[in-house]
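Researcher: Let's run the pair from yesterday's discussion. Sequence first, then tokens, for each.
Model: Starting with the first of the pair.
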Amino acid sequence: MKKAFGSTTVRRFGCTLEPPNSRTAGQPYAFSPMSDRILIHGIQFYGYHGVHAEERTLGQRFQVDVELRLDLREAGRRDDLGATVDYGKVTAAVMEVGGSGQCQLLERLAERIAAVLIERFAVGEVTVRVTKLHPPMSHVTGGVSVEITRP
């Protein structure tokens, strides 16, 4: 929970609220739909990405985490898949991009995934984290990741 005073906003329970002095008594707080998020963790695929030729020849496992920001109020009211983003279709899009083509850099792979998600789904913002689970680096046992956010 983040609290701020003065002219900044207050974040609580995932909702962005106006500071108390920005509204008249009795009025409800303003809600920002961009504070709604769909989070998909641990999408894994085998891909042929990396700087070294061996990585692009032999391949390796990658993991992607996705955060989609969009207004989920209507989906919550109606309990209707048509009013939100289908998690299965998002996962399939990530798998499609990750399993096709080759990128030398995780940064490029993350950009490609973000671009496809923005193109195919009605989202206001997307955050993509791509992790190379077993990079060819001694002393790194937990993987390496790149995370980007795009409007």
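Model: Moving on to the second of the pair.
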Amino acid sequence: MKIIIALFILLLSQLTLAHTQSVAKIQLFVNEQESQLEWQVALIDLNKVIALDLNADGAITQSEFQASLTAIKKLTQESVSLSNKEDTCALDIKDIDLNSRAQTVFAVIKASTDCSQINELHYHFLKDIDSLHLALTKVFINDTENTHVLSAKEPTIPLQNASNASTSFIYQGIIHILIGADHLLFLMTLLLPLFLTRSHAKIKTIASYTITFTIAHSITLLITALNWISLPSHLVEACIAATVAIGAWFSVRPQSRPVPLALIFAIGLIHGMGFASVFGELISGQALISQVLFFNLGVELGQLGFVACAGAILWLASQLKARVVLLALAYAILIIATLWTVERLLQQSWMPF
């Protein structure tokens, strides 16, 4: 019993490390005479490196932003760079402005270089502070558009032989599911009723759950990328939290039963909009379908890894007759998800994860 409790504590402690992924955006237009670069980065991320909030009141004003322009220029040249076979190309900062998107304020930094034969783009922002930070990058060369994901793991991309980096989308799909505490807890609620009851064919049932959930979130990720639907992010996140509470309720009610496949499909549609919150703007263009497939392959691999680990722990708990521990876990998830729902509807930040 002590081993089971220790394993659950370890599993839940990993969930507390999950957080919303920090994402920037880069567009690079490569020309022989002069190349143009635009970097969009959230002010809250800049504030991790530069003290933008000068009076420490929790808000960054326009005047505080203007007072930090010199520091922002220097940080840009340190964080984003271009190079050719001979040397690093100097970036000339042309303009720095503010833009608001999805309730987040971004600094929009425009730069250029007259360096010829650029062959690499390098990105080092937040590499020592947030290893999960990434930059969704589009490179335009000779009327060809290529999509990439820059991160601490992959800080450099080649430009002259650029191609759509499928491995980056697979990797980011894995990361995105594994840092999403709400997505993981929902998967846990799908598993719990199977081990709280004497359900047979558990592996078959788990496989059907995972496939149904994946198909559903793939649909909404794709149609969101096509801009067919667009909902306020805080409402989407609140709905996701509510789905976790619904899943937990199926475990704690007197006659615990598995979640119906139709409901899992509907919930998967909601979670897909959450996945699209990070990659909706990046997944576009001619390679849209392949990008969705590669990203979802990563999500599926991450899901399978989590389901395998969580399923093994739940199976062990069921074999040791630790039903009270499983019920305690279900109630804990129900409470957490309910608090998440209220928090997100009110656009507050009370929870540590």
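Researcher: Give me one sentence on the second I can quote.
Model: The CA atoms of residues 127 and 152 lie 5 Å apart.
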